[in-house]
């Protein structure tokens, strides 16, 4: 006989979670004993759905209580399985385009296809991100021009409201930055941001996932630094631009502060230098020239009397060197029509910001010349956010070594994946993210099902089913236009 409990955690600190727990109760318990058990909190040691087929030993009235206590003491200390076991943590690092896509896919589709056997575990999704908001940095070149073009509430979108529809599943969102990843212990150490993140993480660590190791990581004495075990890990930590204006650098308030500071300087600036001939640099120079130097564009383009001097410095012999030549030529023609002065085959070798009392910046160039400008915007590419990963799973450029077909990180052990800008397969285009999401989620599902089948038949009885699981393969998309 099994008592059935349904509990709902709706505290303000955590995303609401619903649990359904089956608790074994002796068939010969008296009505008073049964009533007492029903009033107690559910006990989650043994007693998952896999116990339902077992017939309890018959008890007589005189020895029923003692026998029941002996049975409970015998199973005490055994690792529980099934519904009574601790959930296994599916950890996603990063909550931008890749991380959020994977998280919603898991809660919408993947979780419904799991628990294929009676011994299968429960799963808990944990999303770790240093920012509570996603930055729509595709619009950053326009957002940096002035506060009226793209409002902060439109550029920075809160993450949690999008998960309200998933309240029936076990998941939590923790604001923090991953500092280290231990691929052998299968844990991540997180520096938490704010008291809410500390409370949420402590609640996760109260019921530490057993994952694949017999012992769980100890809770840190420092409440701001906590370690979380993972059963599966998806790294979506992306990349960061060299400019604070073009990507998140920690919490979104840091980027809002950088934008506000830049906006306050733009109006009084007479010269602006944009460095970088790629997509970000070309669009930033174009947006600045369009909205700062012209009062109107339709039906007639009207240039203001005292336009700002806008320079674009590129390290190549043309704009947009990674795209087709005709695209770069068209972009350069449009920039020149807007009054942007372009310098090719020159790199900025050193920057001295606010080098004098006027707050101007001095730029040292590769042709042994110098430029003095009121504002300087580096659009010289991005760097991967992979500092937390061990060196053994990073390439020479510090990108995570990722299998370009399966999105697995083979060197990091089972059920470890990576997509997006931080992965070695990526060309740092957003299309590389969205095209990889179906692949990584399909292969994650395969790996989780394979684990469930091995638990159900540890001596290899389900090997044919495991071998029949087919991986999805990623195909790189060429972006040249």
Structure commentary:
The protein has helices at 31-38, 64-75, 97-108, 140-143, 152-155, 195-206, 252-266, 279-292, 325-337, 430-434, 437-456, 463-467, and strands spanning 2-9, 17-24, 88-93, 123-129, 133-135, 156-158, 171-182, 187-192, 225-229, 232-235, 239-241, 271-275, 294-296, 302-303, 309-313, 341-343, 348-352, 361-365, 370-373, 375-378, 382-384, 416-418. The chain has 481 residues and is of the alpha/beta class. The strands form seven sheets. It has a seven-stranded mixed beta sheet, sandwiched between helices. A four-stranded parallel beta sheet has the order 16-15-12-20, covered by helices on one side. The chain is elongated.
Any low-confidence stretches, pLDDT <50, length ≥5?
1-63, 209-216
Q: What distance lies between the first and last C-alpha atoms, to the nearest angstrom? A: 65 Å
Please report the number of helical segments: 12
Supply the CATH architecture of the largest domain: 3-Layer(bba) Sandwich
Structural class: alpha/beta
Oligomer classification: single chain
Q: At the fourth CATH level, what is the homologous superfamily of the largest domain?
A: FAD/NAD(P)-binding domain
Strand content: 15-25%
User: What is the count of β-strands?
Assistant: 22
How many discrete domains?
3
CATH topology value of the largest domain: FAD/NAD(P)-binding domain
Largest sheet geometry:
7 strands, mixed
- What's the Cα radius of gyration? 28 Å
Task: Kindly provide the name of the CATH class of the largest domain.
Answer: Alpha Beta
C-alpha geometry: elongated
């Amino acid at each position: 006989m099994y008592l059935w409990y349904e509990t709902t955690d709706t505290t303000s600190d955590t995303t609401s979670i619903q649990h359904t727990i089956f608790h074994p109760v002796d068939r010969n318990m008296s009505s008073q004993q049964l009533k007492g058990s029903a009033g107690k909190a559910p006990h989650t040691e043994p007693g998952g759905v896999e116990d339902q087929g077992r017939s309890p030993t018959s008890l007589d009235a005189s020895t029923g209580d003692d026998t029941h206590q002996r049975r409970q003491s015998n199973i005490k200390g055994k690792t529980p399985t099934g519904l009574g076991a601790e959930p296994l943590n599916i950890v996603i690092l990063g909550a931008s385009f890749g991380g959020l896509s994977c998280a919603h896919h898991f809660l919408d589709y993947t979780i419904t296809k799991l628990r294929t056997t009676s011994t299968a575990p429960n799963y808990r999704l944990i999303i770790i991100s240093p920012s509570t908001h996603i930055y729509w940095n595709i619009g950053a070149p326009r957002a940096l021009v002035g506060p009226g073009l793209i409002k902060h509430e439109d550029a920075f979108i809160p993450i949690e409201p999008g998960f309200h529809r998933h309240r029936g599943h076990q998941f939590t969102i923790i604001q923090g930055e991953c500092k280290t990843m231990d691929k052998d212990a299968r844990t991540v150490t997180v520096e938490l941001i704010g008291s809410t993140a500390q409370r949420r993480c402590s609640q996760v660590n109260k019921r530490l996932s057993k994952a694949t190791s017999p012992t769980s990581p100890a809770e840190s004495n420092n409440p701001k630094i906590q370690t979380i075990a993972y059963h599966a890990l998806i790294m979506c930590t992306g990349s960061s631009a060299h400019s604070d204006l073009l990507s998140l650098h920690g919490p979104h308030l840091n980027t809002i502060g950088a934008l506000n500071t830049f906006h306050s300087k733009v109006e009084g600036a007479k010269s602006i230098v944009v460095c970088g001939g790629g997509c970000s640099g070309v669009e930033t120079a174009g947006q600045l020239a369009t909205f700062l130097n012209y009062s109107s564009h339709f039906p007639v383009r009207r240039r203001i009397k005292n336009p700002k001097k806008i320079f674009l410095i590129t390290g190549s012999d043309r704009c947009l060197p990674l795209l087709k030549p005709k695209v770069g030529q068209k972009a350069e023609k449009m920039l020149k029509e807007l009054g942007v002065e372009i310098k090719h085959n020159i790199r900025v070798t050193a920057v001295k910001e606010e080098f004098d009392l006027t707050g101007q910046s001095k730029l040292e160039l590769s042709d042994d010349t110098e430029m003095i400008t009121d504002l300087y915007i580096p659009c010289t590419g991005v760097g991967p956010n992979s500092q937390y990963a061990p060196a053994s799973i990073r390439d020479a450029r510090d990108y995570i070594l990722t299998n370009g077909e399966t999105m697995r990180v083979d060197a990091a052990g089972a059920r470890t994946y990576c997509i997006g800008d931080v992965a070695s397969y990526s060309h740092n285009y957003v299309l590389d993210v969205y095209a990889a999401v179906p692949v990584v989620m399909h292969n994650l599902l395969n790996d989780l099902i394979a684990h469930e089948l091995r638990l159900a038949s540890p001596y290899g009885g389900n090997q044919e089913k495991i071998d029949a699981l087919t991986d999805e393969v990623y195909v790189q998309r060429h972006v040249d236009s």
